[in-house]
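Reply to dn_fold:

You asked what the input looked like. This is it:
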Amino acid sequence: MTKITELLDDFKLNQQIQGRKPKYVEICSWRLKRWNEFMQIELSVEEAEDVKAIHIKRYIQHR
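and this is what came back:
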């Protein structure tokens, strides 16, 4: 299983490799970090494979 935090780190690296502006990468990373914190604290989900549509809907509702 893959931890969400590992995928977020991979996403950030990929964005940097693709030459995205640092501010863009920072904003995306910040938003994803907030989502990840919600997943861990509110829903106890840490593995990417455990994320379900209902979790995304709950985060949207939360926001």
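Residues 4-62 form one domain.
Hope that clears it up.
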